[in-house]
Amino acid sequence: MQNGGKVKAYKIDGFISQSEDKHFITKFGGQPDWMATPQWPVSPAWDYRPLKFIGQIRLNDFCHELEKLTLAYIFMTQPKDRNDLFFDPDIIYPDEGENAVIIQPDGKIPEYLHVENFRTGPTVDSKSIWIPQTTEIEETPVTEFRQMDEDKFCGIPALIQNSEVESDGKLLLQLHTNWLPFYINAGGAPTLFVFINNTKDGGFILIEDR
C-alpha cells in the first residue's frame, strides 16, 4: 500500500509462544494449515528430503484486497536441529528448489519445485508455535537504512547486495534469522526476504548474508 511514496510495514516486536496450535493464522513452527491438497516441497538434490516448514503467513492480514482466505507457506532445506552440521548453500537462491513459497488455495507451483502430498513434516518447532507481535509503521525511499533493517512484514526491503528482485515482487517478510526464538540456519549473518507477486499466487525467497 503506497500513498505519496509511503509504504506500510508491520514491524515485528517479538514472538509469543503457544503450545496449542491455532489454525489459519500467521505463525512460525508447528505444521502448515493446508487450504487445499498438501504441497510439501522436497529436495531432489538431497534424495527428496522434505524441506523444513518455517511458517505460514495469512496474506489477508497484509493484503486487505484479498476476499478469500489465503495462506503463504515458507519452506527451506535445513539441518535437523542445532547439533546437525548439515548446510546447503543453495538456500540463498530463489530458484534452486532449496527454499519455497507455496500459496494456497489458488497458488501456482513453479517448475523448479518438486512437491509431495505430505500433510506434515519437519518444522522449526514441533512443540510450540510462535506468533509475531507487530506494530504498523510507514516507510519511504528516504527512510534511513537502519530503520528499514528490521524484522517486519511488508515495507521496503533492506537489501545490501543489490540482489535482483522481479519487477512485480513485493516484500512480504524480512527476518534476521540468527536472532529468532526458533532455529533457522541460513548462513553466518543472514537476512531472509520473502517476496510475493502482484497476483498473490506465487512468491520466492532471497537470502543475503553479511
Question: Helices and strands in order, then pairings?
Answer:
Layout: E1 2-3, E2 6-18, E3 27-29, E4 40-43, E5 49-50, E6 52-58, E7 71-76, E8 99-104, E9 114-116, E10 129-139, H1 145-148, E11 152-154, E12 170-176, E13 190-196, E14 203-209
Antiparallel strand pairs: 1-2, 2-10, 2-11, 3-6, 3-10, 4-5, 4-9, 6-7, 7-8, 11-12, 12-13, 13-14
Structure report:
The protein has one helix and 14 strands; from the N terminus they run ββββββββββαββββ. The chain is 2% helix and 39% strand. The protein has one domain (2-209): YwqG-like (Hypothetical protein YwqG fold, Roll). The chain is mainly β. The strands form two sheets. Strands 1, 2, 3, 6, 7, 8, 10, 11, 12, 13 and 14 form an eleven-stranded antiparallel beta sheet that branches. A hairpin with a 6-residue loop joins β13 (190-196) and β14 (203-209).
* C-alpha Rg (nearest Å): 16 Å
- Assembly form of the protein: single chain
| Counted beta strands | 14
Q: Tally the helices.
A: 1
Mean pLDDT: 94
> What's the CATH topology label?
Hypothetical protein YwqG fold
What percentage of residues falls in helices of 4 or more residues? under 10%
Termini distance?
Answer: 29 Å
CATH architecture name: Roll
Largest sheet: 11 strands, antiparallel
| String of helices and strands | EEEEEEEEEEHEEEE
CATH C-level label? Mainly Beta
Q: Indicate the proportion of strand residues.
A: 35-45%
Output the structural class: mainly beta
Q: How many discrete structural domains?
A: 1
Low-pLDDT segments, ≥5 res: none
